[in-house]
């Protein structure tokens, strides 16, 4: 099942406890950059309202002694079912190496078990290795003006290589992290089975 990124974040957070829209916003402000996602408070509250309409969440009045009462949102059985359906859906990596979909999936689906996290890491790792092996690093003259001087052509080729190196180093680091994470998760699973 396809859920929007905000849906996943909201359902994932609600699955661990009741939250206000402000609580969600605070979490995204602190952790959103690390999962590659952010949202405005208006988006959060609008989506929580839709969750109530769809029976994915129910509002609960949180009476407070100081200040105005707050509205908490609690995940429903239907909301939990939707989240579980997404967690169990096949993961297909994005062509972009640092796409937020992997980060969001790893954060919320991977947290369900070391086995699920390992499955996601292995899928991403296999995809990244295959993409890196088949990446065409040849010079692409499309962005070079037709009337470029010999000197400009030398510069454009060098600039192309610099850009290619940037992508290569980013993906190489990602692959190294995925390999290290795979080993850590395997060790975690082995220690739990003893």
From TrEMBL:
Gene3D superfamilies: Winged helix-like DNA-binding domain superfamily/Winged helix DNA-binding domain. This is PadR family transcriptional regulator. PANTHER family: TRANSCRIPTION REGULATOR, PADR-LIKE FAMILY, TRANSCRIPTIONAL REGULATOR YQJI. The lineage of its organism: Bacteria, Bacillati, Actinomycetota, Actinomycetes, Micrococcales. It comes from Sinomonas terricola. InterPro entries: Tscrpt_reg_PadR_N (IPR005149), WH-like_DNA-bd_sf (IPR036388), WH_DNA-bd_sf (IPR036390). Residues 10-84 form the Transcription regulator PadR N-terminal domain. It comes from the Bacteria.
């Amino acid at each position: 099942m396809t859920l929007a990124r905000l849906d996943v974040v909201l359902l994932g957070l609600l699955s661990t406890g009741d939250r206000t829209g402000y609580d969600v916003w605070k979490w995204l402000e602190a952790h959103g950059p690390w999962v590659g996602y952010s949202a405005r408070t208006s988006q959060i509250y609008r989506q929580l309202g839709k969750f109530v309409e769809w029976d994915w969440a129910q509002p609960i009045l949180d009476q407070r002694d100081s200040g105005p009462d707050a509205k908490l949102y609690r995940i429903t059985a239907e909301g939990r079912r939707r989240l579980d359906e997404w967690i169990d859906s096949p993961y297909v990596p994005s062509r972009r190496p640092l796409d937020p979909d992997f980060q969001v999936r790893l954060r919320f689906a991977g947290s369900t078990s070391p086995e699920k996290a390992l499955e996601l890491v292995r899928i991403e790792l296999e995809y990244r290795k295959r993409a890196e092996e088949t990446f065409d690093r040849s010079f692409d003259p499309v962005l070079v003006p037709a009337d470029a001087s010999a000197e400009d052509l030398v510069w454009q080729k060098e600039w192309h290589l610099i850009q290619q190196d940037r992508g290569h180093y980013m993906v190489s680091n990602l692959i190294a992290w995925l390999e290290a994470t795979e080993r850590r998760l395997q060790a975690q699973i082995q220690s739990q089975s003893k």
